[in-house]
Structure formats: structure tokens, C-alpha cells
Amino acid sequence: MEAGTLYLAPPDRHLLAKNPDSPHLLLTKGPRENNFRPCVDALFRSAAVTYGAAVVGVVLTGMLHDGTAGLEFIKRCGGVAVVQDPRDAEFASMPETALRNVAVDHVVPLHQMGPLLELLTREAVPNARIIAIPEDLKLEAAIAERVVGTIEDVEKLGNMVPITCPDCGGNLWEMEHGSVLRYRCHTGHSYTAEVLLHDSQHGLEETLWVALRMMEERKNLLSSMARREETPTPCTRSSASRS
């Protein structure tokens, strides 16, 4: 990675920060997180684990809940969380969700974002913010890189709950750490509670429409059978005529 350079994740790849001694970026096709790949939470977590208190995470306008868990990862590693003022955002959902769940350091409109980031990136990191990187985040970062990812690894992070993963159908574990309620399966898919709730609502609606279609089809089939039973067949009429 080079200063003054903007890096964008290509489609269908997670973009992860790696190795503070020789900074570089890693592209992976690891499991989707919150149904996305690339996922900003995966990027924020990798940056927080790699650079700790030197990281500044920013969540701008957007829909749903992306970035909330990632901002909390950054805060847990001593970094700074910045959110666009929801009143200034075209879509306020992402900033509002971040503000509800994370102790955000700065909330500013878009026209103040540039000067704020210039100030933050020029300041030295205060010693008070430099802390040990939580072990659970190190493990989750390794799972995202596909370095580890077994049931035993996930069991170190939380407790199994009677909920299945929307992506692979496997068991989900409820994460024990952090203030944002999250779930993860042993293959690596990860969700915040809000995203999981949204997915379950979508799945429930689809199931109800399928049930309605099946009942309509059964009604149509029974109606056809009833009409056939009420109509005499040609063989029946012929026999009656001869007798």
C-alpha cells in the first residue's frame, strides 16, 4: 500500500489489510459477510487487527446496516470511528445504525469530512488509545483469510444457537464479544442480528407465497377432479342406450 493512493475492492472479492511491517492488501473469495463480498466489515476488521489504534473508519450514506460491526471492531482496537451526519446523508440507514450501536467519535456532514480526515491522519496516535488487539478479532480475521475456519475455531468465539445460516444451512454461533449482536457459521458466513432478521423475514415471505401457490394448485386439481366425476363418460352413455 502506498500513501495518497485509493484502493477499490473488485467485484466478488474481499479486500483485506495485511502485515503492518510490509503493508499490502489481500484479495480473497472468502465467505460472504452480511450477504456481501466485498464486505466493508471484513475490511474494517482486517485493518483494525493489522494497524490497531492508527485506523480511522468512516461510514457514509447507504442502506441497511453495513459498516456498523466493522466500526465497532475498529473501536475495540483503539481506532477512531467517523460517521456522516444522517441528516446530510442521501440514505440515512447506515449512519443511523452505526450511531445506535457504536461509540462514534465524529459525526459530520459530507463537506466537513475531508478536513476532518486530513486532521486525523496527520495527528500522532495518543498512547492512551494503543491497546492489545482482542484475540477474538484476530481469530475472525484469520477465518476471513481462510487461514482457519473449523467448528472448533468458531466455538472459541461464541455459543451455538438454534438458528441456521441463510447461506449454507449450517448451525450459527452467537458471538460473545462486542456490543453489536452478531452470528457466524463454521464455514465463515457472518451476520449482524439486523441482517439475519431481514433475511428471515424475506425467507418467511417466500415460504408463505410458496404455501399459497401450493394450496391454489391443490384447489385447482380438486376442482378438475370434481368436474370429471360429475360428467358421464362416453362409455357410460353408450351402455345406457343399448340397454
From TrEMBL:
<protein>
    <recommendedName>
        <fullName>protein-glutamate methylesterase</fullName>
        <ecNumber>3.1.1.61</ecNumber>
    </recommendedName>
</protein>
<dbReference type="InterPro" id="IPR035909">
    <property type="entry name" value="CheB_C"/>
</dbReference>
<feature type="compositionally biased region" description="Polar residues">
    <location>
        <begin position="233"/>
        <end position="243"/>
    </location>
</feature>
<feature type="domain" description="CheB-type methylesterase">
    <location>
        <begin position="1"/>
        <end position="114"/>
    </location>
</feature>
<feature type="region of interest" description="Disordered">
    <location>
        <begin position="224"/>
        <end position="243"/>
    </location>
</feature>
<dbReference type="InterPro" id="IPR000673">
    <property type="entry name" value="Sig_transdc_resp-reg_Me-estase"/>
</dbReference>
<dbReference type="Pfam" id="PF01339">
    <property type="entry name" value="CheB_methylest"/>
</dbReference>
<dbReference type="InterPro" id="IPR011247">
    <property type="entry name" value="Chemotax_prot-Glu_Me-esterase"/>
</dbReference>
<keyword id="KW-0378">Hydrolase</keyword>
